From TrEMBL:
Bilayer-crossing regions: none
E.C. number: 2.7.4.3
MF GO annotations: AMP kinase activity; ATP binding; dAMP kinase activity; nucleoside diphosphate kinase activity
Protein name: Adenylate kinase
């Protein structure tokens, strides 16, 4: 029953390299549009915080800038979606899918992809934003070595996902190099064009 409700969800996959501003823009979208927001990275960090043996394994993978297993991420996202399904039909799924199979499995088992919101910005800008964030974030992966590996993982695993959805005409590509408000201005224009409200 709950799964049937999820099938009707309007899913917006939010993608972009590390530090491109996915979380920042999702916060602004939630404030204006009231959409549900789930971040796979936040869900994984909560699991790490729980101190469980699985959390320790996850932390080691995340500190190397690699991707954790599809099964774990998909289960965390699906559980979190079920808790929110009655709040809004729109779901911002931030940081997922990070590799092609994540998208395929999600669409087969949870819901179709409405659009992909892709924040594009240079590697140098992403790196500088993350090093700055690292001064206060406490995130174990906001350090130079891990940032470089995360950028490599994005290029090798996640860029093909963006291409896959672009070929289906589903990608909204946003230049994310401006200020936070400038980027959000473009997001709003793009949503209006597609009657996302
Ligand atoms: N347009 C912007 N201009 C300047 N700084 C920005 C902009 N957008 C976000 N930031 C800042 C906020 C954060 O300190 C940092 C990274 O943004 P954030 O939204 O956390 O990125 P992200 O969610 O894509 O990264 P991650 O993949 O690491 O979670 O950059
Ligand atoms: N969708 C995901 N698949 C595998 N691993 C993931 C996923 N989302 C997050 N992770 C891991 C690997 C990332 O480097 C860290 C931090 O994620 P972020 O979205 O940048 O906060 O978590
Ligand atoms: Mg984030």
């Amino acid at each position: 029953m709950a799964d049937a409700k999820l099938k009707k969800a309007k899913v917006i996959f939010v993608l972009g390299g590390p530090g491109s501003g996915k979380g920042t823009q999702c916060e602004k979208i939630v404030a204006k549009y009231g959409f549900n927001h789930l971040s796979s990275g936040d869900l994984l960090r909560a699991e790490v915080e729980s101190g469980s043996p699985r959390g320790k394994e996850l932390q080691a993978i995340m500190e190397k800038g690699e991707l954790v297993s599809l099964e774990i991420v998909l289960a965390l996202i699906k559980d979190a979606m079920l808790k929110l399904v009655d709040k809004s039909p729109y779901f911002l799924i931030d940081g997922y899918p990070r590799e092609l199979e994540q998208g395929t499995r999600f669409e087969a088992e949870v819901a179709g992809c409405h659009v992909v919101l892709y924040f594009e910005v240079t590697e140098e800008v992403m790196k500088q934003r993350l090093l700055k964030r690292g001064e206060t974030s406490g995130r174990a992966d906001d350090n130079e070595d891990t940032i470089l590996q995360r950028l490599r993982t994005f290029t090798s695993k996640t860029e093909p996902v963006i291409k896959h959805y672009a070929d289906k005409g589903k990608v909204i590509k946003v230049n994310a190099s401006g200020t936070i408000d400038e980027v959000f201005g473009v997001v709003q224009q793009e949503f209006a064009k597609r009657e996302i409200k």
